[in-house]
Each structure stands twice: as C-alpha cells, then as structure tokens.
C-alpha cells in the first residue's frame, strides 16, 4: 500500500502498530491562532519541539502549515521573515514533510528549501482535475513535492486516472473521510463553515446544514477502486483518536464503504 497521512497522537500503541509507510500530521502549540475555534480545539493535539525531536528519528512527521497561519502576512517583509523562521524551525526539529496549501509558500519551499523538506500540497487548492498541473509547471523546482492531496469534490474515476497519468512522478494522496457534494455552491458553503471562525455552536449548525443538503452529498467514487499503490489521507488535527483509528482499520481491511466522514467530528 502507498503511504498514509494520519493525525499524530502521542500514544505509542497507536504510532507503533503497523506504522511502516505512515506520515504523522501535527504542528507546534504556539502556532494556533487564539481566535479560531478549530485551532483552539486542536491545540490539545499539538506537539512541542522537544517531543518532535525525540520521535522524528523513528517516525515521519508532517507539519500542517495552512493558510490560517498567514492572514496575507506572507506578502510583507516581516511575514516572509517569520515564515522562513517557521520553516527552518520545522527542519531543525526533524519534520520530513510539510502540508501546505498557500501557492506563495509552496513556491518558497520549492525554490529555497528543496533539499531540506518534502512538500505535500493540500487539497485546499482544489486540485481536482488534470489541468491543475499548470500550477506546478511554472515552478522552477518541484523535486521536493512528494504528494498532492486530491479533494474528492467532483473527483470521478475517469478524472482520477487522468490525474495519475498527468502528474507522473508526483504522487496523489486521496482523502477518504471528507464529505463531498455534487453541487459546487453547497460544497463551498460547507467548507466555509468547516474552516471559518465559529463558536461552540458550530457542530450543531454543521449537522443541520448537512441534513438540509443531504441530497447533494454523496459517497466518494473511489470506494470500489481500492488500489494498494494509492496513498491516503485520513483524519485532521483535532479529531478524537478513535475516529481515525476506525477509519484506518476499515481502509486496511478494504472496507472503504464503512469509512465515516470526519467533518462535524472535528469539534467533539
């Protein structure tokens, strides 16, 4: 089987069971924004630099470095300096991978840090079709891009096979546990709710929204296209440990139809 990207839980029984070919997703505690409810909840699953150093020799760690960190500060001199400082800290601490969706940061990583850390491009870029490779073709150096996490929005089998042929040496990593929609407006509104700044009532609103729009949601099309050569992403930082564990078990047993979506479980 290809590699799997899983949220990190500092639990040896979780990390050492069938751990070959796994990449663990985490970030430092100080990187969470105080006003984002999603980050507030996920802080419990953060890691200290000391903890990361102690396990990076035994496990592959991936840093979740997404757009919430930046708030457009990446276009300022101060922001650029802070981002470079962050990346160098990740490298020094032993992170082998970085998950990122910001095109500016992807370009920076490819041009300045291609020897030091491998890039996993997040699906937030909505890389769902073969022609999206245009973005990668304009980069000077893409040797350190290991995977592209493909969103399941509008991802059908024929499109996926076309993407595999198009991307060639860059692997595709499929999310199996996120809700998808046949209606683009519904999909975008749902993800605005998922990644927005919300209070304690967000999970109630999400469940209500899902019920009202259930006719637009569908199971992913890759359920009966299980392929040992495909890499998979399961879970997010902040999801209770039991849910990714169950989904991982279903994946390993080729029971993809049993995999549970995680979106409104991010706020347990």
| Helical residue percent band | 25-40%
Number of strands: 10
What is the residue-averaged pLDDT? 81
Specify the number of helices: 10
**Estimated radius of gyration:** 18 Å
How far apart the termini lie comes to 30 Å
Q: Strands across the major sheet, in which order?
A: 1-2-3-4-5-6-7-10
Shape: globular
Low-confidence stretches: none
Instruction: Report the order of strands and helices.
Output: EHEHHEHEHEHEHEEHHEEH
> Major sheet, described briefly?
8 strands, parallel, barrel
Give the class from helix and strand content and strand pairing: alpha/beta
Sheet-strand content, in percent, reads 5-15%
What does this structure look like?
- The mean pLDDT is 81.
- The protein is α/β, with parallel strands linked by helices.
- The chain has ten helices and ten strands.
- The strands form two sheets. It has an eight-stranded parallel barrel with strand order 1-2-3-4-5-6-7-10. Strands 8-9 form a two-stranded antiparallel sheet.
Short description:
With 268 residues, the chain is α/β, with parallel strands linked by helices. The chain is built from 10 helices and 10 strands.
Labels describing this entry:
268 residues; alpha/beta; two-stranded antiparallel sheet; 10 helices; 10 strands; 15% strand
How would you summarize the topology of this molecule?
Elements: E1 4-7, H1 12-16, E2 22-26, H2 37-42, H3 49-55, E3 60-64, H4 77-93, E4 97-100, H5 103-112, E5 118-121, H6 134-137, E6 145-150, H7 157-167, E7 171-175, E8 180-181, H8 184-195, H9 202-212, E9 217-218, E10 231-233, H10 242-252
Parallel strand pairs: 1-2, 1-10, 2-3, 3-4, 4-5, 5-6, 6-7, 7-10
Antiparallel strand pairs: 8-9
